[in-house]
Amino acid sequence: MNVLLLGASGRIGTRIANELLNRGHAVTGVSRSGAVDGVDDPDFSAVAGDATDADQIARLAAGHDAVASALGPSDESPEVLVEMLDAVIDGMDRASVDRLVWTGGAGILNVGPDTRLIDSPEFPDEWKPVASAAIEAYGLLEDADDLRWTYVAPAALIEPGERTGEFRTALGELVSDEDGESRISMEDFAIAFANELESGDAVHEQLAVGY
């Protein structure tokens, strides 16, 4: 598979790139600067691109089998996430690429009947602006009927760690362990992300990942 990876220079992006490359896929990694550290493979190419520019997305996506995204907003401007997804959807349509796997946030996931994580008392206030932007962006995906999209959401806590290959997935529900902790390593998240990109088992779904 020939994959265009947006946000390739971030901590999650580099891990997704390496996971896909290790499986034999070709990856074009996009970052604002055009530089991606931590990825060294003959099937990888790094390019500069602005994920808020639909014209650039259309040009970069052309000829690829799928678009993968590890894009994330800064804390200072979380609303840019909506702008980016809008541009990605538009650009992919112009490029006639219809498979998108998008790294979302855990805030949208259900933790009980009619209760999302963002609405739970334990959800930190400082995380709410970014989580709210991710949920608003998800609304754009719901309307993108022509795209075979999947929204892959990590556990409540995602951080660098080990690549164990041992994790669980769920549709639309936060994954927590028997102690109520919800966490996942970036390495194992990358495995789940690549699995879904390859299989397409959760098209038009929120795919949650955790231990």
UniProtKB/TrEMBL annotation:
GO MF annotation: an example: oxidoreductase activity, acting on the CH-NH group of donors, NAD or NADP as acceptor
Protein name (database record): NAD(P)-binding domain-containing protein
InterPro entries membership: NAD(P)-bd_dom, NAD(P)-bd_dom_sf, Polyketide_Oxido-like
Gene3D superfamilies reported in the protein's UniProt record: NAD(P)-binding Rossmann-like Domain (3.40.50.720)
SUPFAM superfamilies associated with the record: NAD(P)-binding Rossmann-fold domains
Boundaries of every NAD(P)-binding domain copy: 7-194
